[in-house]
Amino acid sequence: MKQLPVGKRVRVRVPATSANLGPGFDTLGIALAIHDELEFETLEAGKLEFDITGVGADSVPQTEEHLVIRALKYSLEQLGYAMPGIRMHADNIIPHGRGMGSSGAAIVAGVVAAAGLVAPERTVTSDELLALATDLEGHPDNVAPCLFGGLTIAWMDAENQPRSKQLMVDRGVSVLVLVPEERMSTEVARSLQPEQVPHADAIFNLSRSALLIAALTQSPDVLFDATEDRLHQTYRASAMPQTAELVRVLRDAGFAAVVSGAGPSVLVLCQDPGARLRAAELAKTQNATWQALMTAVDVQGATVETVAETVESPRA
Ligand SMILES: Nc1ncnc2c1ncn2[C@@H]1O[C@H](COP(=O)(O)OP(=O)(O)O)[C@@H](O)[C@H]1O
Ligand SMILES: N[C@@H](CCOP(=O)(O)O)C(=O)O
Asked: pTM higher than 0.90 for the full model?
């Protein structure tokens, strides 16, 4: 295994994501302009230092089990480098366990930090970044938009390797995420999915997800029909009744509302900013409290930059 020098520093920025978008289970996702920012510095092997502010500061493990550190170690080892000691500062904004891709973003942060630390000696390709992140996340629909920005279609190819196609979202689409206080573990939500689904439901989702690509890239007028789903939301509804109820209320009022990721947040794709305000007002009439995040689509995806190396002051 190759060794990294002590004192190498990289700065990373990763966006939140909303996956599925209704019919595109495990396939479609958009990056959101809500970001975690992290900085890494290599130390002598064996040392691990954390400075975490914001979301998760009191709850995420400050050990080798930290998800970002696990992703960094996995990625470095896959790239042929030994895990060095690490000092990590993280300023977290993305809510955890709300269906806004926090785990995908944490994994991508570790993966792109590894890519930044091995550069310029080793160039890590986009395909490699996606493969590393998907290995860890288990499905590509959050990590693809997190890595590349915009709207992504992700799939597994014949060799079971993740692939993705990035598209730009039409400027007429406004995004609202309604975030509840309760959490929902993606792992638990996935356990509620059946092994098999009716053929008619598969056809239903095929038509809607194809239509959704048109709606998001050029024809926002068909967003409502394009966001219908029969493959995941109903199976998970009993685990998040308030989410299911809010989606129902919003859709009854004509809004293209879906469960964001595995929930429990609700994503509303609006044809104009006025509709977004009206949807947020409607959410206020519900029993549960929903934080309204009026955000934009992130078009940049994850970024990593090298920070000037730490220079020891010369001894007098
Ligand atoms: N920035 C982070 N740092 C460390 N761990 C994180 C971070 N973001 C997410 N996680 C881990 O992932 C969990 C949430 O993952 P998950 O259930 O998939 O929900 P989400 O929809 O937010 O991705 C958190 O409880 C935490 O254990
Ligand atoms: N396709 C996945 C998406 C999970 O997204 P997250 O933001 O909740 O992690 C699923 O629906 O299980």
From this structure: yes
* Predicted confidence (pLDDT) at residue 315 exceeds the cutoff of 90: no
- Structural domain that includes position 114: 9-167+299-307
Q: Are 104 and 152 in contact (CB under 8 A)?
A: no
ipTM of the modeled complex: 0.99
Closest C-alpha to 267, from 277, 255, 278, 275: 255
Whether residues 251 and 147 share a domain: the answer is no
Same domain, 70 and 159: yes
Is residue 147 within 8 A of residue 239, CB to CB? The reply is: no
Structure tokens belonging to residue 195: 């092994």
Residue 79 placed within a domain = yes
Q: How far is CA 278 from CA 20, 34, 258, in A?
A: 23, 22, 16
The alpha carbon torsion through 278, 281, 287, 290 (nearest 10 deg) reads 100
Residue minimizing CA distance to atom 2 of ligand 1: 106
- Asked if residue 1 belongs to a domain, the reply is no
Determine if residue 116 is left, alpha or beta; phi over 0 gives left, psi from -120 to 50 gives alpha, anything else beta: alpha
Ligand 1 residue neighbourhood (C-beta within 6 Å):
36, 56, 60, 66-68, 92, 96-104, 106, 185-186, 261-262
Q: Is there a single domain that holds both residue 303 and residue 227?
A: no
